[in-house]
Amino acid sequence: MSADLMGDLSIFVLALLVGFEVISKVPATLHTPLMSAANSIHGVVLVGAILIATSADTLFGYILGFVAAAFAAMNVVGGYVVTDRMLGMFKKRPVAAEVPEQREVNS
Amino acid sequence: MSGFDTAIRLVYLAAATCFVLGLHLMNTPATARRGNQVSAVGMAAAIVATLVVVMHGGGVKPVAWVVLVAGVAVGAVAGLFSARRIAMTAMPQLVSLFNAVGGGAAAIVAIFDYVRLIQILDRHLGSSVVVPTVLDVIIGAVTFAGSLIASGKLQGTISSSPIVFRGVRVANILLTAIMVAGAVFLIAFPSATASVNIVVLSAVLVAALLFGVTMVLPIGGADMPVVISLLNAFTGTAVAMAGFVIDNSVLIISGALVGASGAILTKLMADAMNRSIVNIIIGGFGTGDSAVVVGGPAGGTLREVKADDAAIQLAYAQKVIIVPGYGLAAAQAQHEVRELADLLEQRGVTVSYAIHPVAGRMPGHMNVLLAEANVPYSQLREMEEINPDFARTDVALVIGANDVTNPAARRPGNPVSGMPILDVDHARSVIVIKRSMGHGYAGIDNDLYADPKTGMYFADAKKGLAELSQSVKALG
Predict the structure, then answer these.
(1) CB of A47 less than 8 A from some CB of B
(2) Labelling B263: which of A56, B354, B453, B457 has CA 20 to 30 A away?
(3) Least CA distance to A78: which residue of chain B?
(4) What is the model's pTM?
């Protein structure tokens, strides 16, 4: 087994352990955003998509590169935006009740 | 290692650190949004660093740049559009869709790299390349197809009831055999003719895609929280494998983090549903073939209540716990429930929400729906935390939840035995809003309904809650 592979494997196992440690502390309230956030993180496969798309020089390669880039970009952009949208809804105190009051003051 | 390489590796390390910190900040709702932003910054850094690497390396054909930019543009617009427009009730299918494309991209990276290496080099490929490639293709393709089916089921374009066709198990065994045999061949004969190896890899790819379909189709809609979590774990693993293939640490670390998160959620969901993961994949009582009705005190009489009576009970209570289930989400009644809660709070009633881990169609889904309806997160209480409170509660209002409130879970010998439940029956009185006397997912009678202190209010969740609010208002 090559030294490179051994290094990669160590990183993989340690990252798994870090993942278990960090994620088991997330409360059930946030499980949907957590999953969505994790989803955005695996969008990092866009890095791989960029590397393959730019090394393509055949039609087959271009097609694969295009699809991979589109898939990964959708994953990254959509994932972060939707997670942010969801988390923006988690409020300590309801805000809807305050907004109409402010409007009354303004008008 | 040149200075340039070092700089790039350091950026990747920083990106990975951002991902871990981002996930860490998600352990309270107050910091979670910042966590997501930290993670996004890490992502941007990793992507920019990769572009710098590519430009630095040079030799990229202009066509390749056009292809890349076009692909990213199409994907980014599609992602942005759907993320902005999606209703919170439809969140599970969108997350599933993003999961599918992530897995698909990971599989493509491995296929591309394999085809390139075997053609250009036409040399002996070591196991350190072939093993992760094969794993990436299999896991990525299963996830891609499986998540698309799951997404379709959640959306309703594919029937959410378990679709079982004759010979599905035989088909699964056959497909598994093709995948295993193909994988063994590719690993054992890495230097066979390039074209033969590509054909074998294609066969593995097709088998994996079909397997994704046949794996998810027979799984019932109510098992979706487990399936989505499991597929999420798969994608993480596929991305990590892609990282092994192209020897990129940031992919390996991110993939491992996601794999861990998916695994934890899968375990939590399966436990909360009282099912083993294997049982869900193979298809247990969700398929209806083992839905034996094992009633407790069956035939117990039900007490029906009207909106006015229920409203009086709620309005003059000191402490009310609302127990929302999927029926509430299906009826899109989260705004109505908050309206009722607001009215009660104005009258000095203490209101909180008891959320079972599997309420909704993905882990934690109910919390998002209620947060969207402006319920403050301090009122959203987890099962273990709120269960002791039921004994001190005047009224438990159960809306569209069934099995997770069934006291039969504490008795052995029935399909829900041992399932963690909300101790609704410990409350002084119980009101159940339910459309009809249909069974829950487990297909058994709910002992709670026959309890003398339980009043059944038969109505659609949305209409029923609106009527309750009206009646509470009428009390002045």
Answers:
(1) yes
(2) B354
(3) B79
(4) 0.87
